[in-house]
Write a structure and sequence with these properties.
Length: 178
Amino acid sequence: MLSKQVNFFSTKADVKLFLNHFDEKGVLMYPYQIKFGEDVKQLNKLENIETNMMVMLISDTLPSKINYDFYEGIQKHVCWVQSSEIIEYSIHAETNENEISPSRFYYNEKFYRDDLYVVKDEKFTQWVKHFYNNFKKRFLVKHDSCRDWYVTKSVYELINAGKLVWDDTFNSLLIKNV
């Protein structure tokens, strides 16, 4: 397997719970992209986090291998997920008045460079698997109406209360006005 991802739906309140969970588990957050000339700094989980952004998650006990590429057109350094030992976390919650878009955790165990597969450190891979399993057990469930997508318990309750409905066209949850 080259990569693995977990897609799920959550609310803004859930994101705050996730951030506290990351603190408890020693998970550090770093920006996915940084402006030209800025230093890479750890994100303060309680302040500068929006519910429509992408961040990188790393373990506080493992050496971090984060690779950024510079993109001249946007004048930013962007994390190259393929070669970095990170979990990409695309944070989404209520993105507008009538929709919840899915969030995602993504990582890869190996990548292709110079005609060869480069395998990431086994300790990193084990940490990610443990992180995924722990996170799913603590926060995520399946709902029959959402196909194979995970939802948080609060989203599950909103679906059951008729306040959210699955949209097959865009693989998203629509907020119903009741």
